[in-house]
Write a structure and sequence with these properties.
- The chain has 609 residues and is an alpha+beta fold.
- The protein has a domain of 195 residues: q2cbj1_9rhob like domain (Jelly Rolls), CATH 2.60.120.
- Helix content is 57%, strand content 10%.
- It has 26 helices and nine strands.
- A six-stranded antiparallel beta sheet has the order 1-7-4-9-3-2.
- Helix 9 runs antiparallel to helix 10 and helix 19 packs antiparallel against helix 20.
């Protein structure tokens, strides 16, 4: 029985602990609550909540979540308890539970701005951009002057490919922000929005402002280096990376971006040396091995992956690296055995089934490869690598599935676009567009992880840059994509046709420029639904219908599978022509011998769900 004396004592403890927490005195709060912790806290929701707050401030998140959960169970209609539980679960990475708790808080207090903001941030982190934007906009509707909400909205809009709107949100936040750290973050976000519109000089000025306020802001150096690269100020970008790596030598992301730039600049003498100069760690070892793999220095990559796997036999990424190296060295049977061991432990990973199929194919066992792909597709029906490798296994087995899967004559379609408004013909339009693209292509070589060889690719997402001619072309592309989708058959069992939706979005867009002898290696776009190629300029060599120089080809994988007919279809490029095809279809180009460049715009389409 709880007596008045007990109630008075609890109220005293609660008041003492609350005051201590509010003043930042965690030790005093711990002392106040210590007798109750030692004898189990009574089921008083306010006391459980303040105890949870103490544990959260101490970084003891698991205990905090337990206490907040007890408080929420004791007072299920109290939104603050559900909110605190949701915040703590979110920090623990327990996303689904966190979302449930935050929605519970909003159910009982619909205008709970803090819960609405936290839910928006959670939705953003999980990639649900439309819902995240809706939540943050509602926050700003309820509290129009809230700079950290402007910051959150700008970040969502950048990720959604709407940098012009993100710029507006960032500038609005800057007009009201007073706290220096927040102001620096808003300048950094503004710089990202500007860079994605290729307003690179303005972006650099925004980065200068951010650095003046707070030079310790995470990501500042990386964004500066990327902006300098856009401006072709490569030596300065290299210097920024080197200075930042000297400060934080264990950061694998910095090493990756730095060495990718060195490769792009052809600085082979410096390439990968930063890994050797830095304190050794698993992440840096795997990062270097990944570069060696892409440079086809397979034996060196295998040695590093094997070193890490010997150190930690349970390291999944190291084991995959060893298996991929074995495949590249022609040791297919060993690779298959290692993949089987991995699949025994990670049987829910569709991607693992996909990469395991390659050595099975190369080892002469298409039946096993098909089975592996089917297993992967059972859990991820649209998995691009599984679909692409299944098509090769099908051709080796001659079972007919490849044709129905890829539809080389029906799902690969060509559209000769009409001139955009204001232009009488596509030749005039493409000539002007090509000049605009000149300013976007870097004065360097391709990146190491791109499909093109002997050329350049524009950085970032091309369509949201705000370039007038790109926007005009996009209107014509929208029409062609809409027609392509509308004319698809309906088939709930087909990986392309089953995703048929009227609404779609562009998950990525870029321009590629191939120079003399350049080509695209055979590849797929595993994260897309419909992929593309639009021709801006085409060299004269492409008119040769015998050699088919510079033509796009479909169906040929990047490895020799001893297929009777590796290339299933080719299409001649022509300025103004758009080609659409399934993203999981193997495609590449034939090299060409011509001093004139081959310039294209490509994009990936995904359905809007």
């Amino acid at each position: 029985m709880i007596t008045p004396a007990h109630t008075t004592a609890l109220q005293h403890v609660l008041a003492t602990a609350t005051n201590a927490l509010q003043s930042g005195n965690l030790m005093a709060a711990e002392v106040a609550l210590a007798p109750l912790f030692s004898s189990n806290l009574p089921a008083n929701p306010d006391l459980l909540n303040i105890a949870g707050s103490l544990r959260m401030n101490q970084g003891r998140l698991v205990e905090a979540a337990r206490l907040f959960n007890q408080a929420a169970l004791a007072a299920p209609r109290e939104p603050v308890f559900a909110f605190n539980l949701g915040m703590t679960l979110s920090r623990l990475g327990r996303t689904e539970e966190a979302e449930t708790a935050l929605r519970s808080a909003l159910k009982h207090q619909p205008a709970f701005v803090a819960a609405m903001f936290e839910l928006g941030a959670l939705l953003h982190r999980t990639g649900r951009l439309d819902e995240a934007e809706k939540n943050i906009r509602q926050v700003l509707k309820l509290t129009p002057v809230l700079p950290h909400a402007d910051l959150a909205l700008a970040a969502i809009l950048v990720d959604a490919g709407r940098p012009a709107e993100a710029e507006i949100a960032s500038r609005k936040g800057l007009s009201a922000a007073a706290e220096p750290r927040l102001k620096a973050q808003l300048y950094l976000q503004l710089a990202q929005a500007l860079r994605r519109q290729r307003k690179d000089s303005e972006a650099l000025a925004a980065l200068d402002s951010a650095e003046t306020i707070d030079a310790t802001l995470p990501g500042l150096a990386r964004h500066r280096a990327e902006t300098l690269q856009n401006l072709d100020r490569f030596d300065e970008a290299v210097a920024v990376f080197e200075e930042e790596i000297a400060r934080t030598p264990a950061d694998p992301g910095l090493h990756h971006d730095y060495n990718a730039l060195l490769y792009q600049l052809g600085r082979s003498g410096e390439f990968l040396k930063s890994y050797d100069r830095s304190p050794q760690s698993r992440d840096l070892l795997l990062g270097k091995a990944s570069f060696l793999t892409r440079e086809k220095r397979t034996a060196e990559a295998h040695s590093l992956y094997a070193e890490q796997l010997a150190r930690d036999p349970g390291d999944r990424l190291a084991a995959i690296g060893v298996a991929q190296s074995l495949t590249a060295m022609g040791r297919h049977a060993e690779a298959v055995v290692l993949y089987e061991s991995l699949l025994a432990r990670h049987g829910d990973d569709a991607g693992l089934f996909g990469i395991a199929a390659e050595p099975a194919l190369l080892g002469g066992d298409p039946q096993k490869a098909a089975w592996l792909c089917e297993r992967g597709l059972a859990s991820a029906p649209h998995h691009g690598s599984c679909l692409a490798l299944l098509s090769i296994a099908s051709r080796m087995l001659e079972d007919g599935r490849d044709e129905s899967l890829n539809g080389y004559d029906t799902l690969v379609r060509s559209f000769d676009l009409e001139p955009p408004e204001g232009f009488s013909d596509m030749a005039a339009f493409n000539a002007e567009l090509n000049g605009d693209l000149d300013r976007l292509h870097p004065n360097s070589r391709e990146l190491i992880d791109q499909s093109l060889r002997g050329g350049t690719q524009t950085p970032g997402h091309l369509f949201p840059t705000g370039l007038a001619l790109v926007a005009k072309l996009k209107q014509r592309i929208d029409q062609a994509v809409t027609r392509y989708i509308a004319e698809l058959d309906e088939d709930a069992a087909h990986p392309l046709l089953s995703r048929r939706r009227r609404d779609f979005r562009y998950s990525g867009s870029w321009s590629s420029r191939l120079k003399d002898s350049g080509f695209h290696v055979n590849h797929i776009h595993p994260d897309g639904w419909i992929s593309s190629c639009y021709y801006v300029s085409v060299p004269q060599a492409a008119k040769d219908e015998t050699a088919k120089q510079g033509w796009i080809k479909f169906g040929e994988p990047p490895f020799d599978a001893a297929l009777k007919q590796p290339v299933r279809r080719t299409i001649q490029p022509a300025p103004g022509r758009l080609i659409l095809f399934p993203s999981y279809m193997w495609h590449g180009t034939v090299p060409f011998d011509d001093k004139a460049a081959r310039t294209t715009i490509a994009f990936d389409v995904v359905p809007t769900t």
